[in-house]
Write a structure and sequence with these properties.
elongated; 432 residues; Trna Endonuclease, Chain: A, domain 1; six-stranded mixed β-sheet
C-alpha cells in the first residue's frame, strides 16, 4: 500500500487550466517518473513548449498524485462544497485513486446519502480483505469447563474450592477468532449496503448488490452487531491504532464504515483523521447525472405528465430502415401528444460545432423539434439563450445553471423555471 497524503510539491490548478511543473520533478535517470495508474486515465493533457512542461487539467478535480514528489491540486471553478453537493444529488460514488491514501475531515452531508458516495469504495476495499483474509486476533475467554488454559486461582477458590469442589477451576482460554468488533461493524455495513442497493433499479446498482451479497459470505463466522452502528463506529479510531501490519487495509475500510454509519461526507479541502484513498471527481460525468436527477425531480413542474429517459439506458435507433446504429441522448422527455424534447448536458465553457451536430442527430432519431443544451455558468452569463431554428424546424436553446452561487438551491429553482418557460413557450408551436 502506497500512502501519499500530500507529496512535497503540490501545484494548484483550476479545472481546464494549466500548471507548469519543473521538468526535473518528473524525470528520473532520463525517464518520465509518473505513477502508472495516472497515465492514460485522461486526468491531464501534456504540452511541452518553451522548455517548460505544462499539464492541462481536464474535468477531474481533487489532489492527483503524479509521483512520490509531485501532486496536482485541481480545484473546480465554483465553490468546492457545491461540487460535493452535485455528487451527492447525482447519487454518484466518489472516485478514488487506488493505493494512494490521504486524510480528510468529515463533514455533514447536504444532499444524497453516504451509501451512494462510499458504497462502491467499501465493496472495492473488501476485495483486498477477500484476498488477504479476515482480521483475526487472539481473544481470552473465561471458562469453567475442560482442562485447557491458565487457572485463575482467586476466582477458583472463591467460586469452587471454598465450597468443597476441589477439582473445579476457573480458567482463561485464548483462541484465534475473526468474531471481532471490527468485523462485526464491517459485516453490518455490508449487509446494510446490500439492502440499500437492492432497492435501486440501475444495472450498476444491481451488479454491485450481487457482488456485495457474495462478500457477505466472508463473514459467516462473525456475529451480528449487537449495538447501534453509529455508536459502534465511534470506536473506529481506537481500533485502527491497534491494527496489525498485515491488515492495514482495514484502516480505510473501517473509516468508510464510519462515514456510512454516521451519514457523513468528507471535505476535499480539509485535513482530518479520516484516512481513505485520494478522492477524485470527474465533473463532466457528475454534471450529466446531476442534471438528469434534477430534471427527474422537477418534471411535474417542467412538463406535467412527462417521462424522463436516460439515453445511456434507453437508446434510440438512428435509422428507420437499414443500419442498426443507436444514439444516446443524455436526457429526453416524452409525453403523449407532444414531440419528444431533447436535453443535452455539456460541462464546458463553450459549445462547439460538434455538439450541435450531435444534438441534431438526437433530434432526428427522436423526431424532436426542441433541443436544450444545459451547461454551467458564471454570474456574468445569461441563464437562457436562443440559438436558432434549423431548416427542418428544430429549435435549439442553451440554458445555464449557476454552480458558483452559494445558495445553489436557489440557482436550481431559477434554472428549472427557465426550462419550464422555454418548454411552455414552444409547446403551442411544436407539431404533434
Amino acid at each position: 500500500m502506497i500512502s501519499t497524503p500530500f507529496p512535497k510539491n503540490v501545484y494548484p490548478c483550476l479545472e481546464h487550466g494549466e500548471v507548469v511543473v519543473p521538468i526535473e520533478n518528473l524525470i528520473v535517470d532520463g525517464k518520465i517518473d509518473v505513477f502508472p495508474e495516472i497515465t492514460g486515465r485522461g486526468y491531464f493533457d501534456i504540452d511541452y513548449r518553451g522548455g517548460e512542461l505544462r499539464l492541462i487539467a481536464k474535468s477531474y478535480i481533487g489532489v492527483i498524485p503524479i509521483n512520490s514528489r509531485v501532486a496536482i491540486h485541481v480545484r473546480p471553478r465554483f465553490p468546492i462544497e457545491n461540487a460535493l453537493y452535485l455528487v451527492q444529488k447525482a447519487k454518484k460514488s466518489l472516485g478514488a485513486l487506488p493505493s494512494h491514501l490521504r486524510k480528510y475531515a468529515a463533514e455533514p452531508l447536504k444532499a444524497g446519502s453516504a451509501e451512494d458516495l462510499f458504497g462502491r469504495a467499501v465493496i472495492e476495499a473488501l476485495s483486498v480483505v477477500q484476498r488477504d483474509g479476515l482480521l483475526r486476533q487472539y481473544v481470552t475467554k473465561e471458562t469453567t469447563h475442560g482442562f485447557r488454559g491458565r487457572i485463575q486461582f482467586g476466582k477458583s477458590v472463591s467460586r469452587f474450592i471454598a465450597k468443597g469442589y476441589r477439582y473445579r477451576h476457573v480458567r482463561d482460554v485464548s483462541f484465534l477468532t475473526s468474531d471481532l468488533p471490527e468485523n462485526r461493524l464491517v459485516k453490518h455495513t455490508l449487509e446494510h449496503l446490500v439492502r440499500y442497493l437492492q432497492q435501486l433499479t440501475g444495472k450498476d446498482s444491481i451488479s454491485l448488490a450481487t457482488h456485495a451479497s457474495r462478500l457477505v459470505e466472508l463473514f459467516d463466522t462473525v456475529s451480528p452487531l449487537a449495538e447501534n452502528a453509529e455508536k459502534a463506529s465511534r470506536q473506529v479510531a481506537g481500533q485502527i491504532v491497534k491494527l496489525p501490519g498485515s491488515h492495514r487495509a482495514y484502516e480505510r475500510l473501517l473509516w468508510l464504515c464510519y462515514l456510512i454509519a454516521t451519514q457523513q461526507g468528507v471535505s476535499l479541502e480539509s485535513f482530518g483523521k479520516v484516512q481513505i484513498e485520494s478522492l477524485v471527481i470527474r465533473l463532466d460525468d457528475v454534471f450529466e447525472a446531476y442534471v438528469r436527477e434534477l430534471i427527474q425531480e422537477q418534471i411535474s413542474g417542467i412538463l406535467p405528465g412527462g417521462q424522463v429517459f436516460d439515453g445511456n439506458v434507453h437508446r434510440v435507433p438512428l435509422y428507420v430502415h437499414g443500419g442498426d446504429n443507436q444514439v444516446k441522448p443524455d436526457i429526453y422527455i416524452r409525453k403523449p401528444g407532444v414531440r419528444p424534447i431533447v436535453l443535452d448536458a455539456k460541462y464546458k465553457p463553450k459549445l462547439k460545432a460538434a455538439d450541435r451536430y450531435e444534438v441534431l442527430a438526437f433530434c432526428e432519431a427522436l423526431q424532436s423539434k426542441l433541443a436544450i443544451f444545459i451547461s454551467p455558468s458564471n454570474r456574468s452569463e445569461s441563464g437562457s439563450r436562443f440559438l436558432g431554428v434549423t431548416a427542418g424546424g428544430v429549435e435549439l436553446h442553451e440554458l445555464k445553471i449557476d454552480l458558483g452561487r452559494r445558495d445553489i438551491e436557489s440557482a436550481e429553482s431559477e434554472f428549472v423555471n427557465n426550462i419550464r418557460m422555454t418548454v411552455e413557450a414552444r409547446l403551442a408551436t411544436l407539431p404533434t
